[in-house]
Amino acid sequence: MWRFSVLFLVLYLSSALTQVTLPDTKHAEGMCIWYGQCKQKNGNWLNCYRNIPKVLAPDNGEIFNALNDVCPWYVNKTAPNSTYTCCNVDQINALRTSSLKLAQQLLGRCPSCFQNFMNIFCATTCDPSNSLFMNVRNSSLDIVNTTYPAIDTVDVYFTNHYTEKFFNSCKNVQFSQESSKVISLMCGSNDPCTGQKWLTFMGTPMPGSPAPFVLNFTFTDSATGGVIPASMIAHDAPLKSCNESVNGLTCSCSDCPMVCPASPTMPPSKGSVKISFIPIGIFVGVIGFVIYNIVFSIVVMISLVLTATDSKGEYQRLSRSSRRSFCLTDVGQVFEDIISKLFSRWGYFAAKYWFVVIPAVLVVVFGFCAGLVFFEVTTDPVELWSAPNSRARKEKEYFDQHFGPFYRTAQIIITAPHSPDFSFADSQNYKIVYHFGGVFQQDILNEIWHMQNDIANLNVSHKDSNGGKRDITLQDICFQPLAPDNMNCTIYSVLNYFQNDFELLNKEVKLVFTVTANSSYHIHYCTRDPSSLNATDLFIPCMAEYGGPVDPSVALGGYETVNGTGQYDLAKAIIITFVINNHVDTEMNKPAEEWEKAFISYLKTYKDRVKNSNISFSFSSESSIPNELDRESLTDVRTIAISYLLMFLYIALFLGSFVRRIFYSLFPSDGRPKCSGGILVSSRIGLGLVGVCLVALSVVAALGLLSYLRVKATLIIIEVVPFLVLAVGTDNLFILTHAYERKRQCKPAAMTTTLIGEALGEVAPSILLTSLTETVAFLLGGVSTMPAVRTFSFFAGVAVFINFMLQITVFTAVLGLDSKRINQYRLDLCCCLQLTKDEDEIDNHDSLLFVFMKNCYAPFLLHKFVRMAVIYIFSVLFFGMLVGLFNQDIGLSQSIALPKDSYLQDYFDDMSKYFRTGPPVYFVIKDGYNYTNQTKQNKICSSAGCDLNSMGVQISSASLIPEYSRIAEHASIWLDSYFAWIDPRSGCCVVKNRAEAKPKICSNHSDPNCEPCLTGDNDIYRPNPTEFSRYLQTFLNSNPDTTTCNQGGHAAFGSAVALKENNKSVEASYLMTYHTILRDSNDYIDAVKRAREYSSNFSLTINHEVFAYSVIYVFYEQYLTIKEDVAINLSLSLGSVFVMSFLLMGFNIISALIVTGTVALIIVDMLGMMAWVGISLNAVSLVNLVMAIGISVEFCSHIVRWFAHSRAYSRIERARDAISYMGTSVLSGITFTKLLGVLVLVFAKSQIFVKFYFGMYMLMIGFGALHGLVFLPVLLSYIGPFSLSADDEASIESSNSVHEDAVNYATIDSRAVTNSLSSSQSSRSPHRNVELDRPTENTKLFYA
Q: CB under 8 Å to 499, separation ≥6 — which residues?
């Protein structure tokens, strides 16, 4: 962080020097090359050249005491009067007051390292035989002021063993304030650093550096010979390893891996579970498929044997045995009869007294709608995805309350794709060539400076809550870490290596015609030593203008890492981050939000204003995602509107007989096309529009009703619930209307009110079954911990139920009115106009779809071999999808949640491509911990004297296995920095009148009246409880000083410690580190898991609660339990499907099991296919899965109930009826309507619409239709329940039997289809008369 050549104050400056020729230096045991100080230059003293014998330091004399204090190993403890040295008191005091203090602050946490450092320091300064390994090459003389020459150049000879042992003892020492190693701050631009590079760097003078002459280090393998002059010996004194103790203290595990009990190892990767070498998913799928087919084959063979009699015997056995075995069926039948009669009477009443029903119901519904005055929509991602009582949410609130919310950021990622790479030679050694990425070209840097400067000076007009207006700039909202002493904003940018000064950015140093230093070389140096005060020939410090260093891993991107060292010169991106203050009070964030809007607007139009721009960039601000999510809700309004419009048109056109009448008018049975006004009469377009309006009204009513209860809506509700209710409502509209049409054809002379009542009595129990099942299933989804899922479930459940109520009231009444209009031959949509009815015109034609389903599709599907093939194919499908379940991804990429044309898409791409550092993570120690207790301190800190298993040590160990831990660096620990700051040897904490209760802190450390805060009466220089509390706030308010004290805690730890009201004791604090780069949802989820795993260990370590916090956790916590949440939600919903089906299907457990099982198959197939097509599991997909259960009930329940009530001969016959009558309504209702609407969503701009709505809706409709209209009828033909309507066995006795094993399918008379188009008897309800549904001789052949 600070230039450490300053530590070699052994090299003292002089002024007005004249070069002199030195006599031959005598190199021998007991000879010195210097003694004393000659002259001061730039505030530093220079040593005098004096090749004299070593000087005696008398016992208890001034030199002896000073030497014993600073370099005690040069004191002869056995014979004190035999202590000799080559330095005087002034030289020793210079070491003590300047060099040692800075070294102590940084290296003092590892005693052996610091002692080794002092060993070198003392050897070059005071060793009584330093002439043996040091040789003065050049010196100069101030003739006026001194008689001794000052030294210009010194050759120093060290052995490689000595150098490397010194380096190895210090190379892992951590710098507590910056989560980096101290050695990285002391080696300059030498990467990777070694002992030789370290000493060479500190011995090389730089312009403006406090080291004015050269220490030419020479490193040799042996002490003599080779390049070493004959009379000299390379220095090789004993040094301590980092794991050796000094005065009973040892380096901590964080600073010396050899101290650690064991090196951390990567836990074995769990990977995918396998049985032998086969993945578990494939194994389960294959084994399950084999077992299933064996069981199914056995069941089929048994079924063939048992059914080898006539259908009469089969029916009688089924009917009689069923009544003996299922005693509940009688009760269930009575229950169903009661429901049917109640609905029949209600339908009659609603149709007759429509003028009472419609206004009364609408008054209530509009009363619900009035609740919209309280309607609120939440778009806050935290509110959407994190429950208020969730762990992450509580931890976020705790963090915000004690430390303030995490900073807001505005960020730009800049690249120069068309700028070539270039090279630059080292100004000190032209053989060393540095290679730079094109983004560091001078013209690129200049353009980036103009951009950054414009942004920093953006002026925004803000209107406060009181109505007053004021101008807002970055200065008003930015984070200023050293305020009030330094009011500059924190901007992480390489331009801050030039203090954001344009002239400094373009400064060059030339030697003749050659540029020896420029911006690229300065950046090269500063990325290696970002805290340097005088880095290069440019005479420019690297420290940013806000008073802190700029971490190159944050300011640069797209670089490679070699042996843990970033190759910053070859970075492909420059990252500028503006750090902005954040507040818990959202009103206080309004100025920042206004400035961020201006920031985004400026960058969106940048290239329009700046011609010939050579840069490419992406950008984001704190408010970008919420704003883009809001925009997304408007992005696809047109697409959604078209989708709904197409569904509305379909319902309006196909609900009545409009299309059917047109077809039969154009293709009549007599072959003579004709145009009839009846087409405009029987179209029922108006009825369809009413049905659609009721669907919309039910959604609005649900929103209003829950708004009364102050339940906030979400965008998911607005987008999905109408789609869901329209699907459910459309199905019911078609079922009810088709039921009435069948009754009308059967009883053309009956009164409309009577027919309405009969139709409602026939199908209302089925509609009630599906609606209540869906309502309960959705409401049970409210148990989800995800707010978005829970809110959707509530709104969906209420909306479906209100829609059901509107259908059996208002729609039933309007159906009666519309039927009366048709009877009176009045025009649709214009009922005031009445046409003359053509008596020859009789609308008794079946719909084309019905004809196809009954005479073509049903016979084909129920053919013996087709049925077996269907079962086999669906079993393959199921087990194939089951394999996919084991490979289901979880998470939701941020880019998918945003519109395709969002500027954030480029930002997320660049972030994934160029970022090399992950988000910060804080390990928070909650209130109640006693920090004044030394034993408890040792459980947290990571410096000398701390526990080997402390929190700090564990974090450092975790950073050694980042692939597993997701922790990139060791932690910044305020206790370590506080101990270094208060250590009396560091000179940081200095006061006047230490004995007073409130001693005054000295601003001038050289004041002779000042003394260290601590007495220094213990080995580790820890404060006692009183001292700890007395000076803590002072430490937290102290700014780091690069010349006297670098351990001030204001910048690094000002917000890391929450003090109690007395400002003396700690309430809560945190240790901060960084996650590794996280690129996708799996990485983020794993980071949350690992952080919580470590925080649990920390809680056990310190016997106090510790939790991990990062800004990302509230968004990704949901995925830790997403699979369990999905299982619970779907299980509860499926359970409700079973219970409601059992209760409302006449207590028929077989029917309930078949419905529930088929719905479960649909959901399993959907989940499996989601895995195969890459649709991940998250809150959005969970909402759709819950909705899929409701939709699936529509596909299944109606058909099963129709099957159960059919009076046909056998299971196959009843399956045919269910397909023909109810399958037609399901296909024309929910299937075609939803398919038409969903197809439009593929054109949506929002990726989340395309993937999670279009994709999942297609799966929903596809699997629902396949299972409901293909698999379910076949399954019913095998194991369907007995007929609940088979009361009259006499009628069965008189009916003709139909044997399943009839003649071959190929003998089917194809004319049956053509004849059926003109047959008026082909559409007769199976609930009416068994004889009417007896198959003809031709159709019997289909079931073979």
A: 540, 541, 544, 545
